[in-house]
Amino acid sequence: MNIILLGPPGAGKGTQSQTLSAKHGLVQLSTGDMLRAAVKAGTEIGKKAEAVMKAGGLVSDEIVIGIISDRIDEPDCKNGFILDGFPRTLAQADALGSLLESKGKTLDAVIELKVDDGILVSRIENRARETLAAGGTVRADDNAEALKTRLMAYYRETAPLIGYYFAYRKLRSVDGMAAITEVGAQIEKILSEVRQA
Ligand code: AMP
Fold this sequence. Notes:
Elements: E1 2-6, H1 13-24, E2 27-30, H2 31-41, H3 44-55, H4 61-72, E3 81-84, H5 90-102, E4 109-114, H6 117-133, H7 144-158, H8 160-167, E5 171-175, H9 180-196
Parallel strand pairs: 1-3, 1-4, 2-3, 4-5
Helix pairs in contact: 1-9, 2-3, 4-5
The structure holds adenosine monophosphate.
The site of adenosine monophosphate has 17 residues, from helix 2 and helix 3.
């Protein structure tokens, strides 16, 4: 099963992807994680992406589409994957459709995590505080200024994908404000419905 988790920064995509990955053996494909790894490793892609990521902007479509296309070809993706943070623009969504088709793969569901906008900033601030308390390193883009840019990028570029996938009859929505386990249960219900369809 191949699915997309869609939602603004702080909606819980990463948390839910990890649970789904552990439960169903689906591979979590987070373009954010891949790009952070590239920045850390100092690769060409990392060098191109670093400044724009730090500011909270979007990395070019060309770069992220290339990353995802290569990653989907790896053998561990054969049994299914969860796209977390991709696609983020209409151009990425179109490219994803074409590349899945060319690879003979399907998109089974797009699950939107619906959250109240007002909660996002405090969720992300809490994530930074918890990371610090645990002795970890806070993401370079988990600060007020970059967060504003990330939210703007979401509303401008990514939110239109909700209508896009609705039109494709792929969209399913869950209440992302519910407790983590409840959100997980709603997603499980959708997956079992999709499996039976
Ligand atoms: P995330 O971990 O998903 O919040 O992503 C962190 C940052 O990586 C984003 O703010 C963007 O700068 C970049 N990024 C991740 N995924 C994409 C994407 N699909 N398109 C463009 N930029 C992305």
